[in-house]
Known about the structure:
Keywords: Autoinducer synthesis, Quorum sensing, S-adenosyl-L-methionine, Transferase. The chain has helices at residues 14-31, 76-80, 110-130, 145-150, 178-187, and strands spanning 2-5, 52-58, 61-70, 95-103, 135-141, 155-157, 162-163, 168-175, 195-197. With 205 residues, it is an alpha+beta fold. Strands 1, 2, 3, 4, 5, 6, 7, 8 and 9 form a 9-stranded mixed sheet that branches. A hairpin with a 4-residue loop joins strand 7 (162-163) and strand 8 (168-175).
Amino acid sequence: MVICIPPEQHAEFSALINQTLQHRKTVFIDELGWSIPAQGLIERDEFDDHATYFISIRNQRVLSSTRLLPTDQPHLMSEYFDDLCHGGAPRAPDILEISRMCVSPQMRSPARRSYEISKLVTACLEYSLLRDVRALSFVTSTGFIPSMLRVGLTLLPLGLPRPTETDIISAWQLQVSPHGLDALSSHFKMTLPLMRMADQIRIAA
């Protein structure tokens, strides 16, 4: 199950969100060596207060997570990766940014990690279709793009790739459509709907 937690329900689901932030610190800072600040045992930035979280859980244990941010206010791409976008980062009420996609550090199988990431993207597409969102913008390692195209997703490059010390990154938009949702869910044999809104369930905070 992937739970969608909007900002107004962060407090109710604080235990799950805290697990998510701990995973982000372990994966992004401890393992990948990202130059971003930690807050003790968690990684949290200035955009998390406005995030809609998508958290894949089993038995109240977080398996993977990501977040969507509104682009008509400051967000990760506009504040830190604007140079990756020709003409600047897209901003519109019907464009959201997907970022901080993280799989539990306990999940080491590449196949399982790929499946968890696909679950998160599927849930984000379900959410976006319900809210008339037309695109999801994101920054990623350019090496991930071919696998996304192979499953039938429609991607629009926002600018030229940029090398970093350890990778080559680029900015993209994922076009939201029923076709993309069907292609992704069919490829990974997922049963829809996958996403559940937080107000449909009750989990102890």
